[in-house]
Amino acid sequence: MQTGDGLLVRLRPATGSLTPAELRVLAVAAERFGNGILEVTARGNLQVRGLTAADVAGLASAIGEAGIGVAEGVAIETPPLAGVDTDEIIDPRPLALALREAITALDSPLKLAPKLSIIIDGGGRFHLDNIVADLRLKAVKTDDDVAWLLSLGGTARPVALLDHRKVVPGLLAVLRRLATMGDAARGRDLDLEVIKTELAGGAYQPTGLILATEPAMPVAGLHTLADGATVLGVGLAYAQADAASLTALLRKAEELAAAEIRLAPGHGLFVLGLDHEAAAIMQGLAFSLGFRIAPDDPRNHIATCAGTGACASALMETKAVARVVVDAAPELLDGSLTVHLSGCPKGCARPSSAELTLVGAPSGYALVVNGTASVAPSAYTDANGIKSAFAHLGALVRENKDAGESARSCLTRLGAARIAAAFEQG
Ligand code: SF4
Question: Could you tell me the strand order of the sheet in which 364-371 lies?
Answer without folding.
Answer: 302-304, 339-342, 354-361, 364-371, 379-381
